[in-house]
Structures are given as structure tokens and as C-alpha cells.
Amino acid sequence: MSVPMRIGVVVRRFTVLAVLCAVSVSCTPSVRPAVPTVTPSPVATVPTGILVTPGTLLVCSDAQLPPPQELLFNGEAGGSDVDFARVLAQRVGLVLRLIDTPTAGVAAALKSGRCDMAVSAIRGSSNLGAGLEVVPYLEIFEAILVAKAKTGTITAVNDLCGKRVAALGGSAEEAIIAGSGDYTGRGLSSACSTPIVAQSFTSDTDALAALADGTVDGFLAASPLAGYEMQQHGDVLVRVDGLTTASDSEVIVIRPGAGAADLKSAVTTALNSLVQDGTFASILRKYGIAN
Length: 291
Description:
Blueprint: H1 8-22, E1 56-61, E2 70-71, E3 77-78, H2 80-91, E4 95-100, H3 106-111, E5 117-123, E6 133-147, E7 164-168, H4 172-178, E8 197-201, H5 204-212, E9 218-222, H6 223-233, E10 237-241, E11 247-254, H7 260-276, H8 279-286
Parallel strand pairs: 1-4, 1-5, 7-8, 7-9
Antiparallel strand pairs: 2-3, 5-11, 6-9, 6-10, 6-11
Helix pairs in contact: 1-5, 2-7
């Protein structure tokens, strides 16, 4: 499988992880349950001529955000969305090729014909513009991660008032804290007399390092990321759910143009088969998302 990726992110991610280990967050590798490796016969076919490259499913995916995407030590792509895209391609009888694309550029990449579809932790509520078909595949919600040493300090929204809460820069969580963008007037700070202080970070490892050394009091993350961090660092983290009712879905986005409806139909059939035979659930369990 050809995987053109921004390899430079590997060095940075594991350099930051080394710092994270030094400030007490566990770096003991977790043992992930295996996803079934038997390749079943395709359950759907994509008509000839509608793909960017015949016989290949080109999937745009951002390599920089675990658990949906992560670069492994050997530079290969991994992550829940990558595993998901791989088995989807198998179920429609195609070879997968990942195109590393920043999430903000996914819509433009699809409209320009750079890829056939995108699987990249894209929210259904995102403003992707007209002409793009979507297939929802995962319901998500928000959770707060707290250092285990501070268990019980955050149990309700009011406990966050005046505190410093980490979020990934440009994420929905950042907007949820501040009550900006799609969350204007209904952010977490709207319940506080002393606003929550949002601290933006470019990566989850930076946010966790700040949580470990007390720079922030909590880390607001979407449920897939929260589950993944608990799987990796559950010995030093506590997850608090239910502080916000914000929920959304993650979606596959199909490129516009001729054949889009056929591709969407094939992908939907493949997704249903993955759900029915338990393969999708196995992927979620592998990355801690099922919990």
C-alpha cells in the first residue's frame, strides 16, 4: 500500500512523548486486541471509470491526530480511521492508497479530484460546502481527562469554572469551551461566573504533558481521543463523561461529480457488512474507542 505521509511528524510526536514520560504519564505500551486479518470476499463493487485511479481507492486522511490517524515508528500509517479505510477498500474489492491531507484541506482535495473519499475524523456538523456526500459511521461526544492524582476535583461543569482546560487548537472542543463558532452562547463557560480558560495545544501529547505537570486542570477531548488516551495512559488519567451534552458524528466524505452516488452506495454496503460481522467493533476496541 502506498502511503505518502508527512514523515516529519514522527520525530516530533515521539520527542514530545519522551517529555511526557519524564513528567509521569505512563509510556508502557498497551496490548491492543487484533483486528481480524482474514480478507472476506467483496460485498459491493464500484463501477469502472468513476475512481480517480482505476482499481485503487484513494482516501484523504490527516496523519497527525490519534487515534484516527497516527504514524508508526516505521513511517507507515496506522490508527482507527486507517484500519477502517483499509477494510472498507477490501470490502469493495479495491487497493487502498492513503493521501496525507490536513483536515482543513479535505473538502478542497475532494473537489479537485485528488482523492475518491476522505476518512479523517471529520464531523458531520462540519461546513464542508455543497456537493459532498457523507456516510456517518461513528457517534461521538465530549469527555474531560483529569490527572488521576486530582480524581474528584472535576465532576460537574461548575468545577471547571475559572480552571485551565486544554483543547487541541482549532478543534470543536476549543469552541465548546469558549462558546464560539457553532457553540456561540452555549459553551461550557456560559454556566460560569468566572470563565473557563482554554489552553490550546497543537498535539495531544503536548496537552497531556501540560496536564501531567499541572499547567492545565483538564483536557477536553472527543470520545475517540479520550478513549485512546485512557487505553494508553489509564494508570494516571481519569475520564469524566457527561459534562457536556454536545454530540456529533464522524463521517466518510465522498468526492463530488459523476459516480458519487454509486461510490456512496458501495461504501455504505461495505460499512454495513463491517458492522454486522463485528469487524468495525474490533477496530474500535483496538484503539479504546468502544468504551
